[in-house]
Specification:
heterodimer; A: about 140 residues; mainly alpha; 9 helices; B: about 180 residues; Rna Polymerase Sigma Factor, Chain: A; Arc Repressor Mutant, subunit A
Amino acid sequence: MLDLNKIRQQEPFKVPEKYFSSMEDRVMERIQPRKEENKINWIDRIVYQLQLRFSIPSIMVTALALIVIYISLDQEREKLVFSDQEIKNFLLEEYDESTEAQILALTIEPTEELILTDDDLIEYLDEDNIELELIDEYLP
Amino acid sequence: MKDRELIRLFFTEGKQNSAFRLIIQRYSEKLYWGIRRIVISHEDADDVLQDTLIKIYKNLHNFQERSSLFSWMYRIAINEALSFVKKYRNRQFEDPIEFAENLRADPYFDGDESYEQLLIALKELPEKQALVFQLKYFDNLKYEEISEILGVTIGSLKASYHHAVKKIESKIEAD
């Protein structure tokens, strides 16, 4: 007569000596070199951190809200596109003679820093250590 | 260290491998015995266990803590073992006489005749009943844990276990 309780007391399966204590090293050898671990799994870390902090429904609601915001901004952008005629009309409405006078009054005067003497140029070239052979190549 | 802390350590920069070593230390033996009773030979169980652990390493970010870490890992191990058996199932695994001969020739098996009979009877059960029997009888897991691992209701598990025991008893008595 079969006695299931008696059979359970046996453990007939065996393993080689030190089998379980060597498992770590054998598996880790197959996984990947240690120095690569951070480069490869940063996406996993982000996904895990998101899952840890937020539930799946809240992530989905946030994603949906972002999509709605993007679409509405896109529609707003479309409204801001003006035709050539609209621009022309705007400029004609806004233009007056005082504006023109203001533009003409603007003059550009070189500042002192922009005026370079020959000495400045020589000093600049010396600082950059340009080799004479290289200069010769570009000179006629 | 609790499992949750272990998982957080795994996702801490520079700590991934050392955390995973701790996971291997803690669970590899339990996973091995679950796999071994499905694939039977030590060499096959070793291959399946290593593949299982690598799969766990690569998919730990998918673990959402809806079950215990062990249940999640054990489910992966069982699936890997069942896939292995389906892929490499051959005549010697199906034929009870050859199956018994292989068991006796296995240097890592020293069960008596009653244990051999039990394993042969187990091989003839439907997959679900055999799994439930294994987890309840050999691994001594609670129905709640088996339910987490297999994703089956406790009522259904109790029925499966009951049918499995009856079939095994009648099979062995008939032999």
